[in-house]
Amino acid sequence: MSDQIIGLHHWFDSPPGRYLLAWEQARFDEAVADIFGYHSLQLGMPLLDGLRANRMPHQWLALGQEAVDGSMAFVQAGDGDGPLQRRTVDLLTEPVALPFPEASLDLLVLPHTLELSIDPHAALREVERVLVPEGRVVISGLNPASLWGLRQRRARLYQRMGKGALYLPDVGEFIGYRRLRDWLRLLSFEVESAQFGCYRPAVRSTQWLDRFGWMDPLGEKWWPIFGAAYFLVAVKRVHGMRLLEPAWRTQRQRAAAAVPVANRAHAVGATAAKHKSG
After folding, report:
1. Which of 78, 54, 69, 82 has the alpha carbon at shortest distance from 8?
2. Predicted confidence (pLDDT) per residue in 99-157, tens digit
3. Does the pLDDT value for residue 243 go beyond 60?
4. 20 to 30 A Cα–Cα from 158, which one of 17, 41, 49, 75?
């Protein structure tokens, strides 16, 4: 398992990995900027700072086996061309056993966390357990239904014949978007938004990736679900729950509701007086 984690993170230092990382970082920044609360947690993948655009006062980075191996304590600064900087690891834990009480976190971000988990079902159940009602989970993953996924499957066939090398790291089975969406629905999550991205072919060099840059806008328009990666935001729904409004809002609503009643009583009194005088 640790070799798979290290392999994925080393792959993100390659040209296609940096291309994918830049796209995902932009999506996380957009998604978490307007999510409010007090406590947020990123599980895994320190090369990506999924909480940097969020304004919650308490933010933590939790790592598992990759931190124990001592190779994942760095993050790329700036736009990917800057020096590696060390990030603070706040917790050592696995996604299947989070050291938080029930309904204690407002936001969790899972960048490729489920792909590396020993049990992605159990990891999602833990996410549901520790999230508050109406809390949000933000997930990114590699899309098996893409040009990159197709090349990975072809490379696996070649490897069985003793030829070639994998394009993506060997981390087991990637979780498709539709499959993940079904898992979330079973846990009473509602997918709030979903995006696909990175439509350039599965090439290895920066030069060829740049040459195929024109495919990104075309892919978003003509074949959106076949991007190399997907990104989604889901909200935890609790059926039968009624959110309490702030006291000041409740008082204002009551005052607004009372105005028509007073006006109506005044109108009735005025009409009665008119008929009496007539």
Report:
1. 69
2. 999 999 999 999 999 988 889 999 999 999 999 999 999 999 999 999 998 888 888 88
3. no
4. 17
58-63 sheet: strands from edge to edge:
91-92, 58-63, 39-43, 105-111, 131-142, 229-236, 189-197
91-92/84-86 β-pairing: unpaired
Are 136 and 193 in contact by the 8 Å Cβ rule? The answer is no
Which residues sit opposite 74 in a β-bridge?
Answer: 86
What's the N-to-C CA distance of the chain in angstroms? 93
| Cα–Cα dist 50/240, whole Å | 32
d(CA 138, CA 46): 15
- Whether 195 has a pLDDT exceeding 90, the answer reads yes
Render pLDDT for 41-93 as a digit per residue (tens, 0 to 9): 999 888 899 999 999 999 999 987 665 554 444 444 444 455 445 567 888 88
Which pLDDT band, with edges at 50, 70 and 90, does 19 fall under? very high
Considering the entire predicted model, what is its pTM? 0.78
Burial class (CB in 10 A: 0-12, 13-18, 19+), 60: middle
